[in-house]
Predict the structure.
Amino acid sequence: MRFLFVGLAIWVASVFLSAQTVQVPEALKPYIGKPVPDAVMVDVDGKKHKISDFKGKVLLLNFWSPH
């Protein structure tokens, strides 16, 4: 049982140590750390919303298209 625990601990450590960092595409690097450009979007009811209206709040944008 002890060998199983040691083997499992070594396996878990090797998984964490071999994890690769996420590579950022070159096209996105100029935008990292910069504010999002203010854009106006229309909801399904026709009401306009600016991104700046949500400053300080968590905002999830879902760009979905049926095409």
In short: The beta strands are 40-42, 48-50. Residues 2-54 form one domain.
